[in-house]
Amino acid sequence: MADAVLDQLVKVIEDVVGPDVLLGIEVDRDTTFSDDLGLESIEFVALADRLRGHYGDRVDLVGFLADMDIDEIMAMSVGRLVDHIEASVGLATGRG
What we know:
Blueprint: H1 2-17, H2 41-55, H3 61-66, H4 70-75, H5 78-89
């Protein structure tokens, strides 16, 4: 199921940044939003909106980011967000 969440998240990221941005980039759990994908704050807002559209109010990206400082947000990996989504929607991953 974790792969399904990752695959869905990659599609959402592509919707936000456009397919050209992801050309030549293999998005995996270790990909960072800032360094690897170059997401800016307005794109995080769009990402939050699309995640809420897909998962409903169970996935609150804004609330998740509110608990982080700017350095944590900038260093956040795709895997960390996948873990948050899984926890929010009640999926057990078996990762330890």
